[in-house]
Amino acid sequence: MANTVPVRRQYVEGPYGQVHVYTAGKTGGKRPLICFHQSPLSGRTFDALMREMGRDRLVLAPDTPGFGHSDPPPAPLTIAGYAAAHGQVIDAMDLGPIDVLGVHTGARIAVEFTRARRERVRHVTLVGAAVYTEEERAAQRAWTGKSLTPTECSDGAHVLRMWNNWAQFRGPGVTDAMIERYLSDSLRQRSSGADAMKAVFSHDMETALHDLDQPVLVFNVRDDIYEATRRSAACLKNGRVVDLSPSGLWPLETRTAEIAEMIRRHCDS
């Protein structure tokens, strides 16, 4: 993509050790955008979006503690705990007012981050904001628990199973290389991923969304939480849900310019 900016990396001190942060753009433009990734992935999933959004603002994507290259916490965290850990890092950067974006697990983290810092967060963008029924919650817990449980002396079948778990949500424009990045992060972070999923299924997204006063833009893609994300529309005081069908899990990579423009209109209004 023409005229995009490079993504750089740095380490900063966090509450549980070092936190790895991807950065693009620079201060002095529009409000900084903070991106929270899905688990068990890492901040590198925002690479394409950061290169585009970084043209007119600072964009940061920290690896959540225990994921990517960030040190793990000493014990499992709740979603609010992950948000608090990110908050300590972002607060130390003294960025002033900010906007936030979160994907799946990161959407929950973004919402809790916003609830804890209402005076600083101006706009919220979410990719997947699942409001589960109890039946869906139980089914998701069983499915993700099976795929993320660490194995020992395995024949490697779990690797193919994990590939298929991601590949089933392949939409237009998704390449094998995109799936491979998700797979490699998933294999690296299996124990942390199981902890994050426990936090997800203990989090009440419905109540959290009702509590937000900021403008909220929700993108809904054709994945395992598509129907649950549709329900988020009824929870928004000041927001809307945009259906990105037929895109699957990779719209920030396959429809980067289009989505970046929607995020700009949302955040800069």
Q: Can you describe this structure?
A:
It is built from 11 helices and 8 strands. The chain is an alpha/beta fold and 269 residues long. The protein has a single domain (7-267), classed as Rossmann fold (3-Layer(aba) Sandwich). Helix 5 (157-167) crosses helix 6 (176-188). It is globular, with a radius of gyration of 17 Å. The mean pLDDT is 94.
Q: Specify the oligomeric state.
A: single chain
Question: What is the average per-residue confidence, as pLDDT, rounded to a whole number?
Answer: 94
By DSSP, the count of extended strands is 8
**CATH homolog superfamily:** Alpha/Beta hydrolase fold, catalytic domain
Give me the secondary-structure category.
alpha/beta
Query: Which value, in Å, is the CA radius of gyration?
Result: 17 Å
Please work out how many helical segments DSSP would assign: 11
Unreliable sequence segments: none
User: Distance between the terminal alpha carbons, to the nearest Å?
Assistant: 25 Å
Helix-strand sequence: EEEHEHEHEHHHHHEHEHH
Q: Assign a percent range to the helix content.
A: 40-55%
CATH topology: Rossmann fold
Task: Give the CATH class.
Answer: Alpha Beta
Backbone shape: globular
**Major sheet, described briefly?**
8 strands, mixed
CATH architecture: 3-Layer(aba) Sandwich
Number of domains: 1
Strand content: 15-25%
